[in-house]
Amino acid sequence: MTSQPEIDCQATCVSRRLFLNASGAATATMLLGELFPNRVHGQAQDTPVQVTKLPRQKIGQLSKLEADQPVSFNYPGEGELHNCMLIKTAELSGGGLGDAQDIVAFSGRCTHMGGSLEGEYNAEHKVAGPCRLHLTTFDLTRHGMVIAGHATEALPQIILELDGDDIYATGIAGLLYGYSVNG
Fold first, then answer.
1. Residues 60, 65, 71, 75: is their CA dihedral positive or negative?
2. Sheet harboring 166-173: ordered strands across?
3. Where do the H-state alpha helices sit in the chain?
4. The pTM is what?
């Protein structure tokens, strides 16, 4: 009778449990790929932001703006949920207006729980916040994206238009806090 050679199973053998776990993980990965087709190789695809066209409203004048001095205004209506800020960041800003593309406007309400961001502009870092409720901070040079805190959505950006020296709000990119539809 010949004896079988001893095999080091830790290096070469796959147990039934390991095989079932690995095949289950592979199946789950394939199913998730079918459920979420906008994800490729672990990275999300760009998703266009919802832009709502609204009535044109004059909100300021280019000649009166000073760098890093926010100007408050209400848009598209009146009341505290319509509080917004117009800012000349003195730095290239996403969606910016003017020769330096540094004039932007955003909702003045945190997207997490609607906390007021009025008076919460940090000129050194070009951010709005931190929100008084949960410390969310938004980068105003990058379309109001969240950089810290509880919010998961960027600040709604006010779409701007320049007509001579006059600055007009013409719509909103994103959804205002407290509304299911802008306007």
1. positive
2. 51-61, 166-173, 157-163, 103-107, 83-88, 71-74
3. 9-12, 16-35
4. 0.74
Using alpha carbons, select from 127, 161, 172 the residue that is nearest to residue 59.
161
The structure tokens 């079918």 sit at 34
Half-sphere exposure of 183 (CA within 13 A, CB side): 10
Q: Cβ distance 85 to 71 under 8 Å?
A: yes
Q: Per residue in 148-174, pLDDT tens?
A: 999 999 999 999 999 999 999 999 999
Q: What tens digit of pLDDT does each residue of 5-50 get?
A: 665 555 556 677 777 777 777 777 777 666 666 555 555 556 677 7
For residue 169, give every residue at least 6 positions away whose Cβ sits within 8 Å of its Cβ, in sequence order, or none: 54, 56, 57, 59, 73, 75, 76, 84, 105, 158, 159, 160, 161
In contact, 90 and 67? CB cutoff 8 Å: yes
The answer to whether residues 149 and 130 touch, using CB atoms and an 8 Å cutoff, is yes
Strand ranges, E, within 62-176: 71-74, 83-88, 103-107, 121-122, 127-128, 137-139, 145-148, 157-163, 166-173
Q: Which residue has the tokens 């070009």?
A: 126
